[in-house]
Amino acid sequence: MLSPRKAVRTLPSYHPPLAGRHGLRLDFNENTAGCSPRVLERLRHLEPEQLASYPEREPVEAKVAAMLGVAAPELLLTNGVDEAIHLLCETYLEPGEEGVIVVPTYSMYRIYMMAAGAQVISVPAGQDSIFPGDNVCAHISPRTRLIAIANPNNPTGSVAPPKDLRRIARSAPDAAVLVDEAYFEFYGQSMLAEREQFPNLFVARTFSKAYGLAGLRIGVLIGDANQMRAVRHVSSPYNVNAVALACLPEALGDQAYIEQYVNEVRESRVRLEQVLAANRIQFWPSEANFVLARVGAASSFVEQMRRRGILVRDRSSDHGCEGCVRITLGPRVHADRLLAALQETLDELGIAQGAPRR
Question: I need a surface site. Which of 1, 59, 74, 200 has the fewest CB within 10 A?
């Protein structure tokens, strides 16, 4: 009888709660205001031939490479960062080898590593979600072939110091080291300039968050040109759809829109953290477009916020996140709605007298 591989049969499930998302969607770290108007205008003028033809990725890759200041052979557009993670697993992981992650973190690192037949080594974050650089290095072995680090991290919003990331890349020359910068725009610091020093270093970016193109599924993976040549062998030449390729240059061309949105999100993040601190709710200072907070009765909190038209994400099942919710930030008008509903919910549930932040 036909049966999937053992690695596939034992994979954990990842079922994001997409159904019934009615309300202000602050649960998936999306751009809550939407993409640039220039993208919408481009969509209106798509020609039938563009949809009838196989997509051509290279001209758009050249534009993205120019914007990032890298050479085109160092860059690959992907079907979201998810595909970038999958491609690295397929390129570098053999069954029985090891992939290293820091937990809590993005669930798909573990799933793609396990699908490749690898053993996943989970290194717990330090107290207050401090990045455990020493502990990561201590878990590097001759079997280590992939290390995946979200920076800023999801769901905590915390960051890894560049010196730790450099030390990890230096300590694991036979492993691919992925620094996933999905929330780069809200943080502003990158490891992109380090790629020439470390040929085993890869940087991923997405256009789902700040750029508001989550529905088009487009991201980018950057690394050493020789290594990227191997990654391209695993990738389909038609992995990014024609609509995404047509719209991305317009999104990139409207940096004023991105800058305004990012500035408002950062402002909203400060406002949320101030309200949480005033209510003595523990939270993790964030460098992303979300904040993780420990509210205790997370499921009740999520339901009460939903009743007030605000969707937030229960992260209680993540390592060390018992009783926690993750709240996405948007522009000022969305922060106003969020904070009003938040205070009402805290008062109603009687959880505004929790422990101090630290």
Answer: 1
- For 120, the 3-state DSSP assignment is strand
Q: How many Cβ atoms sit within 10 Å of the Cβ of residue 167?
A: 15
Torsion angles phi and psi, residue 85, rounded to 5: -60, -45
Fold that domain 37-253 belongs to in CATH: Aspartate Aminotransferase; domain 2 (3.40.640)
- The full DSSP string for 52-96 is HS----HHHHHHHHHHHT--GGGEEEESHHHHHHHHHHHHHPPTT
Q: What is the length of the chain?
A: 358
Q: Give the global pTM.
A: 0.95
Instruction: Please answer whether residues 314 and 247 qualify as being in contact, where contact means their C-beta atoms are separated by less than 8 angstroms.
Output: no
- Its CATH class, for the domain covering 18-31+256-349, is alpha beta
Q: Which residue has the tokens 């769901």?
A: 155
- Go through 104-123 and write b for each residue having 16 or more CB atoms within 10 A of its CB, e for each that does not: bbbbbbbbbbbbbbbebbeb
Please write the tens of the pLDDT for every residue from 231-241.
999 999 999 99
Q: Using one digit for the tens of pLDDT, what is the confidence trace for 256-290?
A: 999 999 999 999 999 999 999 999 999 999 999 99
133 close to 164: Cβ distance less than 8 angstroms? yes
| DSSP 8-state symbol, 15 | -
What is the predicted pLDDT for the residue at 358?
Answer: 36
Separation between Cα atoms, residue 146 and residue 142, nearest integer Å: 11
**Domain extent listing, the chain:** 18-31+256-349, 37-253
- Per DSSP, the chain holds a count of helices (H) and strands (E) of 14, 13
